[in-house]
Amino acid sequence: MSHTICERPEEANKRARIGDWEADTVAGKTGKACLVTLTDRYSRFLKIQKIAVKKSKLVIEAMVKMLALLPEETVTPDRGKEFTKHQDLTDKLKVEVYFPDPHAPWQRGTNENTNGLLREYFPKGSDLTFIDEHTIQLWENKLNNRPRKCLNWKTPYEVFYEENVHLI
Q1: Judging by beta carbons within 10 Å of its beta carbon (0-12, 13-18, 19+), is residue 118 exposed, middle or buried?
Q2: What is the rounded distance in angstroms from the CA atom of residue 79 to the CA atom of residue 138?
Q3: Quick one: pLDDT at residue 166?
């Protein structure tokens, strides 16, 4: 069963807690590998996993793997075909999935913005097939350790893990 964004809990809408995720895919070359991205609405903390092709089964498997060890309250993906098997996510993790209104990307602005930042490391049309896990982890770490104005100049990592990383 799918839910609309207007049914999403108020805590998620207000960014009042950790565990409300926005999901998307970042395509490389058409028909080739792509990245599955999850961004926490509260902290802007990012998780990335590469998959071989943009198929719903692979996207959902990647999301289950990424979220298994993290707090999860809700997931808000876009309306792409790659999220059609979202019920598997709910079944495996007991997390509810909420879809935005059609043609309303601003309802998932956290993830859209984060994917834009990710594009700094590889432009549209890049072939992601040969990019290794180490490189993907470097991108994830760079973005999670980049201070954000909206977080009062803390990093997503600091907010997500409630730590203060003191710069010397």
Answers
A1: buried
A2: 29
A3: 55
Q: What is the CA radius of gyration of the chain?
A: 15
Rounded to the nearest angstrom, the gap between the alpha carbon of residue 122 and the centroid of all alpha carbons in its chain is: 17
Residue 28: Cβ-neighbour burial (10 angstroms; 0-12, 13-18, 19+): buried
Q: Spell out, as residue ranges, where the chain has pLDDT lower than 70.
A: 164-168
pTM exceeding the 0.85 threshold for the entire prediction = yes
Distance between CA atoms of 56 and 62, rounded to whole angstroms? 10
Residue type, 78: D
pLDDT of residue 168: 47
How confident is the model at residue 154, as a pLDDT? Answer: 96
What are the tokens at 134?
A: 């180490």
Pairing of strands 46-51, 96-99: unpaired
| Tokens found for residue 47 | 């998780």
Q: How many CA atoms lie within 13 A of 106 on its CB side?
A: 0
Cα–Cα separations (whole angstroms), residue 48 to 60, 147, 164: 13, 19, 23
Sheet containing 74-77: order of strands: 3-4, 96-99, 74-77, 20-27, 34-40, 46-51
